[in-house]
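Field log, afternoon session.

UNIT: design team B
ACTIVITY: writing a sequence onto a fixed backbone
BACKBONE:
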């Protein structure tokens, strides 16, 4: 694997983006790859945008993904997905939760939440996967496991052994939360 592969994680503060980037990075390290990770925390504690770059391959020199070279946009919220779609390469794909979180302007009622975002994503990047992340997380037992649901969906399209994903989850998630996260991961693996 001489090519550098790029995953851009995007969402809103508090959605577990940083944990997800840690899990992905750990899987890549277990696979013997060089991994670089970079995080950008906007007003993350106040529900602002959070982005994490994960780059992996035989040798990676920079932690920042060049514009237009994102292979996979791994996103936790629809509007944040659309914000970063221009960074995807031509044949890139998105793995997205269909969760809608109203930004302040929408919450105040000054502008409406944009319509047809899933259609926009799929028309531009037809191989994208849209997951009902919140409902799958709730069915697994905890709304805060949307990130793990999405990791399950991502694991289906990346060529890494399932056991590495499970080991990374066991290493990164506190034991008291592990069972519900493993259920969420399985739900994501089953999502179509």
């Amino acid at each position: 694997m001489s090519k550098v592969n790029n995953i851009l994680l995007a969402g809103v503060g508090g959605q577990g983006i940083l944990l997800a980037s840690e899990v992905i990075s750990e899987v890549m390290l277990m696979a013997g790859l060089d991994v670089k990770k970079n995080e950008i925390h906007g007003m993350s504690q106040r529900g602002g945008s959070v982005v994490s770059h994960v780059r992996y391959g035989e040798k990676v020199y920079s932690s920042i993904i060049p514009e237009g070279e994102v292979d996979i946009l791994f996103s936790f919220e629809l509007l944040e997905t659309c914000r970063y779609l221009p960074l995807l390469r031509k044949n890139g794909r998105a793995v997205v939760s269909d969760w809608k979180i109203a930004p302040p302007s929408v919450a105040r009622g000054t502008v409406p939440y944009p319509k047809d975002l899933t259609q926009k994503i799929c028309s531009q990047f037809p191989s994208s996967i849209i997951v009902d992340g919140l409902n799958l997380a709730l069915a697994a037992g905890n709304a805060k496991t949307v990130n793990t649901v999405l990791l399950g969906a991502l694991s289906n399209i990346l060529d890494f052994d399932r056991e590495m994903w499970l080991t990374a989850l066991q290493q990164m998630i506190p034991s008291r939360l592990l069972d519900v996260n493993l259920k969420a991961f399985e739900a994501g693996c089953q999502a179509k």
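LOG NOTE: The chain has a mean pLDDT of 92.
NEXT ACTIVITY: expression trials, pending approval
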